Amino acid sequence: MTDESERLDIVVPEESAGRGPLLRGELRQERFCCPDVLTQFEHITPHTRKTRIHLLLTAAQAKSLFARSGPFAFEGSLCIRDGVIETRVAKDIWLKSITQITHKEAIYWTQTSGDISSLEIRTKFMPGSELDSRRDISSAWFVARPCFALGILANQTKEEAEEAAKFGFSKQDINFSLSNGATASIHRYPYFPGIIASRSGTFRGYSIPVSGVKDPEATKRDVDILILLASFASRERSISAYWSYETKGEFCRFWQFNIGKFRKRYEREEPVVPRDREECFDFLQTAFNRYSAASTHQPLLEAAIYALLNNQTTMEADIARLFSAIQGALYFATQAPLNPQKRPRIADLCRKFLTAHPDTFDGLWPLIDRQACSPLNDLRNAIVHGEAFSEQEWLALSYAGEHLRWHLERIILVALGWNVEKSAVSKRALSWFNAYRDWKKESNQLAGRPS
């Protein structure tokens, strides 16, 4: 029987073909560092949603990582050609467990790999012929998931414009004005299932090129705002999981991985803004300018919009969440001072909002006013205090949830400088819904509850 200390440590090799270049770097986490690790990344493209890093470990490295849990971060560099250095930074890496197998005279260690949550690739061009041949540009490029607003605002490709011109149709290109003089446009993004060997492909999302970039981080924030507002206008969430920016001396790319699927807009659910390209553009540009000017209150409106887009909860939880979102949206709309020590009540915010915009809530189930019926605020209080609801009250709960959504959408539209009557929550548009016409009758089901 071989003594434990005398056994050889052997790393089991694995197939590494079909991956990216070999890259040496440092694998680390808090109070731990494993230097000089040889790695490979899987091949990725701008539309890649999930990828892995593969570690080609020595026996000593495998032993140091054995039984250690994530997450890890990795940073490494390589010279991809003369005068061009590429650095990769991967974060939130969750590695598969390394297996230890003892057999006769040796201890065998398996290689490992792990999912990555985010990846940054920076390509730096050192002084030389390649740097001299590069254009002096400053631009950024984003890939966004589909939503109605991005679709209607996407500019035509050259081929589409030529085909439309044959039949006498034309569509003017649209460009958005961002901060610091940058401009953005929207285009359909082609997805190629294999190597890009032809121009044929299917469109799965949208690209947003930005020119005149002075501050890449500010541009990233601007495009995130544009996509957030497009999501609100569409009633379906979009996100940019890949973006890049380029200067004469550097090309940087960023990915966010493992983002799940978002709920699609229902087949007969209208977007908030009209199905008109010019109206949609006017809304997004106006809303972008209003939103960007209110930097202090932006997180409140952002959270309110996400509350609208995420409705995969119970009716009771949905009502409580929407009520909190309404309070945040009212903060944004009224620009009330943010003082954690003395927060105004929602009734005060609502009255201040209605003083400036008196007809905004016409036709809706009242939020706080008790003159006509038991307000939605009473229902919210019953929910947060844990009261149970009977089957006879389910329809009333459903109607209450719809009215809270309409309240919230109207507040956001007004706060962003848009006319409610030019939207899907106008009095005329809502008159087709039973929840709008019959809410008074159903509210009587909840009238007996204590406030």
Low-confidence stretches: 191-201
- The structure class reads alpha+beta
Strand fraction: 15-25%
What can be said about the biggest beta sheet? 6 strands, antiparallel, barrel
The helix content is 25-40%
Question: How many domains, in number, for the residues?
Answer: 3
Count every beta strand, where a strand is a DSSP E run of 2 or more residues.
Answer: 17
Shape: globular
Mean pLDDT: 87
State the separation between the terminal residues, measured CA to CA.
Answer: 79 Å
As an assembly, this protein is: single chain
Helices, by number, come to 14
Global Rg: 28 Å
- Strand order across the largest sheet: 2-3-4-9-6-5
Keywords:
single chain, 451 residues, six-stranded antiparallel barrel, three-stranded mixed sheet, 17 strands
What does this structure look like?
This protein is α+β, with helices and mostly antiparallel strands and 451 residues long. It has three domains: 4-126; 134-286, no CATH class; 294-451, no CATH class. Helices cover 33% and strands 24% of the residues. The protein has helices spanning 59-65, 129-133, 148-153, 158-166, 216-234, 277-293, 298-309, 315-334, 346-356, 376-384, 394-415, 427-430, 434-437, 439-443, and strands at residues 8-11, 23-29, 32-41, 52-56, 72-81, 84-95, 100-103, 106-109, 112-115, 118-125, 139-144, 176-177, 183-184, 187-191, 202-211, 240-246, 250-256. The chain has a six-stranded antiparallel β-barrel. A three-stranded mixed β-sheet has the order 1-8-7, with helices on one face. The relative contact order is 0.09. Mean pLDDT is 87; it is low at 191-201.
